[in-house]
Design goal:
- The radius of gyration is 22 Å and the shape is globular.
- Helices cover 41% and strands 13% of the residues.
- The protein has 2 domains: 218 residues, Periplasmic binding protein-like II (D-Maltodextrin-Binding Protein, domain 2, 3-Layer(aba) Sandwich); 165 residues, D-Maltodextrin-Binding Protein, domain 2 (3-Layer(aba) Sandwich).
- It is an alpha/beta fold.
- Strands 1, 2, 3, 4, 5, 6, 7, 8, 9 and 10 form a 10-stranded mixed sheet that branches.
């Protein structure tokens, strides 16, 4: 799962939902599971393709083996936009799998995905087996319209050979340590251009996004009333000023030139994998990419450094992930729920998916199952996943719009287009709150 890379892609789906769904849809009574011997066909729509779709389909085969009367039609390459159009057109899949956790608020508030609360209560599903942060990002304003299907956790990747050459024996724990080390590990070409960046401070490049950085400062997106707090929470200014210090160290023009020559984040030419960046923020899935695309890379992982003013936060990080639910109008909602329950609570199914997709399983039982493959680098993210400091990005009625607006602002800030940071962040709050009110509460 690589949800950070597709924030903008969910906006079209959100717009469709807002135009076609009515907020405040009431919960319906849970539909019964298929009777023994009853023949039922359910459709499953997911974003997976190729190897990842094959892995999902093998897990679906496990469900079929336990429910021989159920036939499953698995449809890959179905993003939120396509699934939303199917819901609006009255021909939804029975089970929807989404990599866009940021759209959960719209799915729940519009009723596009059914409230699973009645099913959970009827079947006495123990949600305590799922970490609190993960429970938080799969519900919106008390309505649980999704269950978690694997998770991503973001931390620090570092080039162990570069550390050894510089005599560094441990990864940085604070942002000031990260800044100092980034400068030490940076290598320059004879013409003054960047050869290797100790740490790339450019928002919008690689996995550098405000939502991946914000937990390290304890920065809050909203207050208790749901209002944007970018301008009122001093942590945001601290974060942006830290970033600008590193941008100024490198020089904006040099950074533009350097990033233009980097490979795509999810290609074999990834900058960290090619040794162009000595330290980077990324998700646990990067361990799988390195295994297949750069097996000779000597690297380590650790929690991403935290603000010097918040050392108690060390071990925190963003968590997000794939979600699964039952769309409104599903023909076989009862059978669909049985599959959703299997995919999200069956330890064997979760471990098989996690091992195949290099993601974090979302129940404590699966997290500690001996069948779960774990390298030392991957173990970092498993440990972080159980931390009470883990932070989900808050759900919003207009999906990822607030996140995209913040990143757009960051792009202007880092290039020197913002004169008064505090004033500009307060203006951004007003913009985000206005857009949110149009999307519904």
């Amino acid at each position: 799962m690589r949800t950070s890379a597709t924030i903008g892609a969910g906006l079209a789906a959100v717009a469709l939902l807002a135009a076609s769904c009515t907020a405040g849809t009431t919960s319906q009574a849970p539909q019964p599971a298929p009777a023994p011997g009853e023949q039922v066909t359910i459709t499953v729509a997911s974003q997976f393709t190729d190897r990842e779709l094959d892995i999902l389909n093998r897990v679906l085969d496990g469900f079929r083996a336990k429910h021989p009367g159920v036939t499953i039609e698995s449809r890959g390459n179905q993003d939120d936009d396509k699934i939303t159009q199917a819901i609006r057109g009255g021909n939804p899949p029975d089970v929807a799998i989404s990599a866009e956790t940021v759209n959960l608020g719209q799915f729940c508030s519009s009723g596009a995905w059914q409230d699973l609360g009645p099913y959970l209560a009827r079947d006495r599903v123990d949600l305590e087996q799922i970490p609190q942060a993960v429970r938080d990002y799969t519900q919106y304003q008390g309505k649980r319209c999704a269950m978690p299907l694997l998770a991503d956790v973001y931390g620090l990747y570092y080039n162990a050979d570069a550390f050894a050459r510089a005599g560094v024996t441990a990864p940085p724990r604070t942002t000031s340590e990260l800044t100092e080390l980034a400068k030490r590990l940076t290598e320059w070409n004879p013409d003054g251009s960047i050869k290797v960046a100790g740490f790339l401070p450019v928002l919008g490049s690689q996995a550098n996004h405000p939502w991946n950085w914000a937990p390290q400062w304890g920065a809050r997106w909203t207050d208790e009333q749901g209002r944007s707090t970018l301008g009122s929470d001093p942590a945001w200014q601290e974060m942006f000023r830290w970033q600008k210090e590193l941008v100024d160290f490198y020089g904006w023009d040099r950074l533009v030139q350097f990033t233009a020559g980097l490979g795509q984040q999810y290609s074999a030419d990834n900058a960290f994998q090619r040794g162009r960046i000595a330290m980077a923020v990324d998700g646990e899935y990067r361990t799988g990419f390195i295994e297949h695309q750069a097996p000779g890379l000597n690297y380590g992982t650790a929690p991403f450094p935290v603000s010097d003013s918040r050392p108690e936060l060390y071990g925190t990080g963003l968590t997000t992930g794939t979600i699964v639910g039952v769309p409104r109008g599903a023909d076989e909602a009862g059978a669909a729920w049985e599959l959703v329950k299997y995919l999200t609570t069956d330890t064997g199914a979760l471990v098989e998916l996690a091992d195949g997709l290099n993601n974090v399983p979302t129940t404590r039982a699966a997290l500690h199952d001996p069948r779960l493959e774990r390298s030392p680098q991957y173990q970092t993210f498993l440990d972080m996943f159980e931390s009470p400091a883990l932070v989900p990005s808050p759900a919003s009625p207009n999906g990822s719009a607030y996140m995209k607006a913040t990143e757009d602002f960051g792009v202007k800030w880092q290039s020197g287009q913002v004169a008064d940071l505090g004033s500009a962040l307060r203006e951004l709050d007003a913009q985000i709150d206005a857009a949110k009110s149009l999307g519904g509460r």
